[in-house]
Write a structure and sequence with these properties.
GO molecular function, one term: isomerase activity
Distance between the termini: 46 Å
Order of helices and strands: EHEHEHEEHEEEHEHHEEHHEEHEEEEEEH
CATH superfamily of the largest domain: Spore Coat Polysaccharide Biosynthesis Protein SpsA, Chain A
CATH class of the largest domain: Alpha Beta
Largest sheet: 5 strands, mixed, barrel
CATH architecture of the largest domain: Alpha-Beta Complex
Structural class: alpha/beta
Number of strands: 19
CATH topology of the largest domain: Spore Coat Polysaccharide Biosynthesis Protein SpsA, Chain A
Shape: globular
Number of domains: 2
Helix content: 25-40%
Number of helices: 11
Pfam families: ManC_GMP_beta-helix, NTP_transferase
GO biological process, one term: GDP-mannose biosynthetic process
Keywords: GTP-binding, Isomerase, Nucleotide-binding, Nucleotidyltransferase, Transferase
Strand order of the largest sheet: 6-9-7-8-12
Protein name: mannose-1-phosphate guanylyltransferase
Radius of gyration: 21 Å
């Protein structure tokens, strides 16, 4: 039976979690919900499966290669670290992953997933992957459709279509991030899922669809891969070739255009993309009202998250507030406005303070 190779996408910058997450040290290399970094959490998750699941491959920026090797050394390390000289979004990453897997096993399967997502129910996650496996072996490009728990306007949605196998459906439509009222209608409908950006497919099937829909991207990515430099378990994609690769997401480039898209639905595994400080605070607090990490003292606080990576932080009488203190920057924000960190980022850029990003 063909094997599954988990390929962890670890190239994001994670600026929504500023000031903890920076371009040089993004959120996937930080402990957010446990003592392990998000990359370590993801690597542990994808190694808790059967013998047909290979050691993971990690695709990242060149700047973070050494960090990844160090972080994952205790668990035997990834089977390969593939470095991108520049970021080009997820479609080129999916092609690189497929070329790499197909090189060893033309029938091999790719489990493509982000490095920085949280999954509470690891067993349930693998049950969902196994549900999608049969459809993937029959040539479908499968995505895991997360069961919505709220009318979230910050995620894209996928509408399921006709059934293929138990718990797996054709994809009827991809929907952009909706307004709140539309998100409420999706929640009530029951046939919509959050798009988590987690995919399962045979490598050759993805390559076929890439050749069909984005042949120029396919050609340049293949050049970059064929001209890559091997250094132990590290594979450095050719910079000149990869610079010519058009940037696009796997959703826009392939998934929304192919007739072979399928969805496992509903997937209810306690998933969160940890895309805001509100998400971090909610996971950290659990059933409690206040959560603190680092050198922190709180008195008479409610619905509050306080985190220090350096100085002592003392908070009194706060309600619904998030505080994150670094050596060079402190964020104090109303939790209901945690998405507005992006406005701070824009102000820092405009004020020539990009060194803090």
């Amino acid at each position: 039976m063909p094997s599954i190779t988990p390929v962890i996408m670890s190239g994001g910058s994670g600026t929504r979690l500023w000031p903890l997450s920076r371009h040089a040290d993004p959120k996937q290399y930080r402990p957010l919900v446990s003592d392990r970094t998000m990359l370590e959490e993801t690597a542990v998750r994808v190694t808790q499966a059967g013998a047909d699941v290979k050691r993971p491959v990690v695709i990242c920026s060149e700047a973070h290669c050494g960090r990844i090797t160090s972080l994952l050394a205790e668990m035997g390390g990834p089977s390969a670290v593939i470095t991108e000289p520049v970021g080009r979004n997820t479609a080129p990453v999916a092609i690189v992953a497929s070329l790499h897997v197909a090189q060893d096993d033309p029938e091999g399967m790719v489990l493509l997933l982000p490095a920085d997502h949280f999954v509470r129910d690891v067993e349930g996650f693998w049950q969902a992957v196994r549900r999608g496996e049969e459809a993937a072996r029959r040539g479908h490009l499968v995505t895991l459709g997360i069961k919505p728990t709220a009318p979230e306007s910050g995620y894209g949605y996928i509408k399921r279509g006709a059934p293929l196998t138990e718990g797996v459906y054709e994809v009827e439509a991809f929907r952009e991030k909706p307004d709140v009222e539309t998100a409420k209608s999706y929640l009530e409908d029951g046939s919509y899922a959050w798009n988590a950006g987690i995919f399962l497919f045979r490598a050759r099937d993805l390559l076929e669809e890439a050749q069909r829909f984005v042949p120029e991207m396919m050609a340049e990515v293949r050049k970059a891969y064929d001209r890559a430099v091997q250094d132990g378990t590290t594979l450095r994609l050719d910079e000149a070739s990869f610079a010519q690769v058009p940037a696009d997401s796997i959703d826009y480039a392939i998934m929304e255009r192919t007739e072979r898209a399928a969805i496992v639905h509903p997937v209810d595994v306690g998933w969160d993309d940890i895309g805001s400080w509100s998400a971090v605070a909610s996971l950290a607090r659990g059933a409690d009202s206040v959560a603190a990490k680092g050198d922190v003292v709180t008195i008479d606080c409610e619905d509050t998250y306080v985190r220090s990576e350096g100085p002592l932080v003392a908070a009194v009488g706060l309600k619904g507030v998030i505080v994150v203190a670094m050596d060079d920057a402190v964020l104090v924000i109303d939790e209901s406005r945690s998405q507005d960190v992006k406005a701070i980022i824009e102000q820092l850029k405009a004020g020539d303070r990009s060194a803090l990003l």
